[in-house]
Amino acid sequence: MADNKAFKDYYDQEMAERLARDLTAVYPPFPAADFINHVTPRLPPLELKARVAVFTGALRDHLPNDYTQSIGILLALLGPELTLEQGMFSDSWFLMPIAHFVELYGLKEADFETSMRAMYEITKRHSSEFAIRPYLQKYPERTLAVLDNWTNDPSPHVRRLVSEGSRPRLPWASQLKQFIHDPTPTLALLEKLKDDPAEYVRRSVANHLNDIAKDHPQRVIETCARWMQEDASPERAWIVRHALRTLVKAGNPNALAVLGYEPPQVALRGLSVTPAVLTLGESLTIRFTLHNQASTPQNLLVDYRLHFMKANGEVKPKVFKLTTRQLDPGEMVTIERQHPIRPITTRKYYPGRQLVDVQVNGQVVGNTAVFDLIIPPA
After folding, report:
1. What is the secondary structure of 316-370 as a DSSP string?
2. Cα separations (Å) of 137 from 142, 145, 178?
3. Adjacent-strand bridge partners of 283
4. In what order do the strands lie in the sheet with 283-292?
5. Which of 41, 45, 87, 339 is the most exposed place for a label (fewest CB within 10 A)?
């Protein structure tokens, strides 16, 4: 894949011609010219998901009406399984319409087993994390039983699908509201994956727990605390840290306690930010000293918060990770960080006074520093 080409632009006439050629090779009656002429003129104004939908609909219109027969033809295009954890989008991006085909057209009860087999094969080359979600909604018990069996599959791609496909708040996908309401079924799956040998799978487990924590924080904290007490390996401890990240940023004391961070006994000294007047595009230097005032060593999780001006003139804090330190009794440490204030797509900046403070083990300590942001005319 070319680095300078937008992902959506791979779904173009060349992709239609490639897919038509490959389909004709495995299914000679395929109407290649009609397929290409159907797809190509519809693509230019569309974004990625809409382009994929055009391909998927065209496959439906130009393949046999029988779903099982169509799936057999499409699976013949899959090629070899991925040998690495990466590659589902860089190497196998062209399979997205096939996964979407299963997502849209295989939901009849009579097609359930065919669809499960198709997703099993697709996910070893691409991903079925979006395709499986309608099945969890329509056939929750049957689909969960399949996922439970897949927790022991030799393929890390299949095991990852168990966690990723059942995430209640998977980005870019429809929410699984039944698991937002009650995460018990998916927590049972995660229990079987918490010591998975693949980092690829463990990362999904952590992200899944982080999803659940947005609706059931105490449930996730209790789960993570238990996992840490059961002779946790470094790999499982990493899952716990990553799973609790949103709660830790919010300063949840119970989440912090799971990670060994108690209420801090520290003094903040000399908090400063420079320059005092900053133009958008420049970097802010934040500097301060922490002094351990306890009679015992302390484990410190140090963050800083930038309170950005909003359109209504109020400021709202955003937490940024900084460092972890252990300080002996009476020990002091000076910390400095440069933070670029540059245009990004996820934030709109407003001129005026912005605030900075320091958060240690989830608690704001000491005073607040200020700087003025200038935004040059466009």
Report:
1. EEEEEEEEEEEE-TT-EEEEEEEEE---BTTB----EEEEEEEEETTEEEEEEEE
2. 10, 13, 8
3. 340
4. 266-274, 283-292, 332-340
5. 45
Prediction pTM value: 0.88
**Which segments of 283-325 does DSSP mark as H helices, in order?**
none
pLDDT digits (tens, 9 = 90+) for 298-340: 999 999 999 999 999 999 999 999 999 999 999 999 999 999 9
Running DSSP on this structure, what letter comes out for residue 167? -
Rounded CA-CA distance 244/210 in Å is: 6
The burial of 15, by beta-carbon neighbours within 10 Å (0-12 exposed, 13-18 middle, 19 or more buried), is given as: buried
Count CB-CB contacts under 10 A for residue 179: 24
Determine the Cα–Cα distance for residues 40 and 54; give it in Å rounded to an integer.
9
Q: What is the DSSP letter of 331?
A: -
Instruction: Characterize the bridge pairing of strands 332-340 and 283-292.
Output: antiparallel
Number of residues that make up the chain: 378
Q: What type of residue sits at position 272?
A: S
**First CA to last CA across the chain, in angstroms?**
34
CB neighbours of 19 closer than 8 A, spacing ≥ 6? 35, 55, 77, 94, 97
Q: Give the whole-angstrom CA distance, residue 213 versus residue 215.
A: 5
Three-class secondary structure of residue 366 per DSSP:
strand
- CA proximity to 40, closest of 31, 51, 50, 30: 51
Query: What does the DSSP assignment read for 41-71?
Result: GGSTT--HHHHHHHHHHHHHHHS-S-HHHHH
Q: What's the rounded Cα separation, in Å, for the pair 76 and 26?
A: 7
